[in-house]
Each structure stands twice: as structure tokens, then as C-alpha cells.
């Protein structure tokens, strides 16, 4: 019998359980995001890959829990819940936007503390964490609610009806602000001699999104870094044709990682 522990149920959504999968793909959603969209990717992968989608406090079944205060507590919680699973079989991380920074912070912690590393890191819509371009994003949480709504509309990806309903809108703004507050507490200074990771990194970006400093991801790994631009804006990954490209590409990377 394949049972999720209570901590696991709380922190991870796994819509398509595959206990015999060869690999696990751990997905980290965007700021203000829940687990459902990336958890559904499970159906697009073959039986060799099981998909987990990470859930932070303050949303979905964790709506009554206080939001995370900082990146350290986010990383510690995710690590403690997932550690056993990550030691069990090869795993990769996929993060979009805010989720990219969390996935990188978790990867750093796993490497430093446990000598564990993803076989591949998939980054989407995000500057490298030591890039100058990343700094303005860290200041976003202080802005007015209306500015956040305007920013959300420009980015797209948020259903219009969410922004129409007063309660849903308030909740979305609050969650976004809290997620951005977590981002403020994260800093990664790249030491000249110490390249923290050795896995390959693939960076994806929407061709019409604000350009991200993807080249700088070369500075955090001794592995290869590849860059792909897919049609669309910041939420290009929600387009069905792009979802198919992403899941096929991720599958190839995971299946060849062991060769």
C-alpha cells in the first residue's frame, strides 16, 4: 500500500501516484500559486516519472496556517518532508518564477547539508539569483495593492474572475505579498571559487515575457546550462502546446541524465 504521510499530504500534491516510477519531478509553483496546475502535469508524463507539486502554507488545504516568514523556514519544511523520498530515487526540480528561486534554495540546502543533488534543475521565467536583474523583484512586496493587481494583469496567468471578486482578489494580493516577502529574505552571493551545484540546468522563458538573465545561471553549476524560449508571455507554460513541449523535454533530460 502506498500511503503519503500526513506531513507529505499537507506539503505535496501528487495527483498521479506512481510508486514504481524511476524518477520524481518536484514542481514549485509561482508566487500566489497553488499546486493544481503543475500536479496535473502528472498525466502528461509516462509511468517512469512521478510528479509532486509543492504547497506552501496559507493556501489550499493549508489556508488556515500562517504564511511562511522567510526562505529558511520554507526550505527546512520542504526538505524535512521530502528528504526520505529524495534519498530513495533520482529526482529533478522544476520551478516557475518565484518557484524557481525556492527550487534553487532547496537544491543548495540539500547539497550543503546532505550531499544530495537533483539530477536536473529546470528553471522557468526567473533571473539567476546572483544577477543584478533579480534585485528589483525582491522589492516588489512593498508596493500598493493596485500596483500588484496591475502587475498581475500584465503578467497574465491569473483568471480574470479572480480579480473581479473582492474576496478572491484580497486573498490573491495577500498571498502574493507574503510570497514576495519570502523572496526578500533570500540572498545568494556567488563566491568566485565555489560553484555550488554540478547538475545540468535548463532555463525556459516566454518569448514575449520581460527578458530574464538566464545566462547567469551558468555561474551556479559546473554542469551544462541550456536555454529555450517558448511562445507566450510570463505564463507561457500554461499553453497546452508548451506544456507538451516542456513535459517531453523534461522526460528526455531525465532519461539521459543517467547515461
Automatic annotation (TrEMBL):
* Gene Ontology biological-process entries: medium-chain fatty acid biosynthetic process
Provide the E.C. number(s) assigned to this enzyme.
Answer: 3.1.2.14
* Top-level taxon in the UniProt lineage: Eukaryota
Q: Which UniProt keywords apply?
A: Fatty acid biosynthesis, Fatty acid metabolism, Hydrolase, Lipid biosynthesis, Lipid metabolism
The enzyme's first-digit EC class, named in words, is hydrolase
Q: Which residues form the Thioesterase domain?
A: 24-242
Which InterPro entries does the UniProt record give? AB_hydrolase_fold, TEII, Thioesterase
Family matches, as Pfam families:
Thioesterase (PF00975)
Record PANTHER family: S-ACYL FATTY ACID SYNTHASE THIOESTERASE, MEDIUM CHAIN, THIOESTERASE
The family line of this record is: Belongs to the thioesterase family.
**What's the protein here called?**
S-acyl fatty acid synthase thioesterase, medium chain
Q: Which organism is it from?
A: Casuarius casuarius
Amino acid at each position: 500500500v502506498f500511503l503519503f504521510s500526513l506531513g507529505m499530504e499537507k506539503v505535496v500534491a501528487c495527483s498521479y501516484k506512481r510508486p514504481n516510477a524511476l524518477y520524481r519531478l518536484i514542481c514549485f509553483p509561482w508566487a500566489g500559486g497553488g499546486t493544481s496546475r503543475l500536479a496535473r502535469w502528472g498525466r502528461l508524463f509516462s509511468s517512469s516519472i512521478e510528479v509532486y507539486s509543492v504547497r506552501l502554507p496559507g493556501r489550499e488545504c493549508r489556508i488556515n496556517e500562517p504564511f511562511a516568514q522567510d526562505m529558511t523556514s520554507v526550505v527546512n519544511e520542504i526538505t524535512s518532508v521530502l528528504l526520505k523520498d529524495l534519498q530513495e530515487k533520482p529526482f529533478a526540480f522544476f520551478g516557475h518564477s518565484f518557484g524557481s528561486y525556492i527550487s534553487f534554495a532547496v537544491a543548495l540546502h540539500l547539497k550543503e547539508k546532505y550531499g544530495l543533488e537533483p539530477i536536473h534543475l529546470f528553471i522557468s521565467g526567473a533571473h539567476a539569483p546572483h544577477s543584478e536583474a533579480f534585485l528589483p523583484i525582491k522589492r516588489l512586496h512593498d508596493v500598493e495593492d493596485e500596483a500588484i493587481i496591475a502587475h498581475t494583469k500584465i503578467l497574465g496567468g491569473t483568471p480574470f474572475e479572480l480579480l473581479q471578486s473582492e474576496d478572491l482578489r484580497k486573498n490573491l494580493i495577500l498571498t502574493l505579498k507574503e510570497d514576495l516577502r519570502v523572496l526578500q529574505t533570500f540572498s545568494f552571493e556567488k563566491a568566485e571559487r565555489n560553484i555550488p551545484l554540478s547538475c545540468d540546468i535548463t532555463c525556459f522563458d516566454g518569448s514575449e515575457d520581460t527578458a530574464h538573465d538566464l545566462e547567469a545561471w551558468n555561474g551556479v553549476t559546473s554542469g551544462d546550462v541550456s536555454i529555450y524560449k517558448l511562445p507566450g508571455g510570463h505564463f507561457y507554460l500554461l499553453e497546452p502546446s508548451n506544456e507538451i513541449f516542456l513535459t517531453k523535454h523534461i522526460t528526455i533530460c531525465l532519461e539521459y541524465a543517467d547515461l
